[in-house]
Description:
This protein is of the alpha+beta class. Helix content is 24%, strand content 29%.
Amino acid sequence: MNKAKMLNNRPAVTVSMSLVDFDRQHHLLRYVWQPTDAGRSASKRPRQTRDCTVRALATARGLSYDEAFVILKEAGRKGRTGFRMSEWLNQQPWAEKISFPAKKGQRRMNPSTFTAQFPSGHYIVKVARHVIAISDGVLHDDTEVPPDRCIYTAWKITR
């Protein structure tokens, strides 16, 4: 059995980490992560890499991996090179932008805080050099994202 197929059959996992903040307060960060390749292993393109935008779109909108791949290809995404997802999502009528600007003295938004504040709905979330999908409070990606990784922007998706 190939690794990607095993990935899609794995149960959801709670990811957590403990940290002491700059103000010496203890924080426990946690979220639920569902390991998934969003159907890539069963698609026409099982060997794609650098495809987080395709996986996030497929998961958040309920599309097949191949449908999401074609949509982003038509929007200018080139295979295995990534894509400027923020610019494209800002033009979509089904995506509502939510920004999380930095505020002095406050922690930035992270997956743990995001899943607690937005426990329902479908979102595409931009973190540093990566895009993930969060649906109904569960993070969907093929790799575990650190619970304290900064979230810069999210888009609420209407299917």
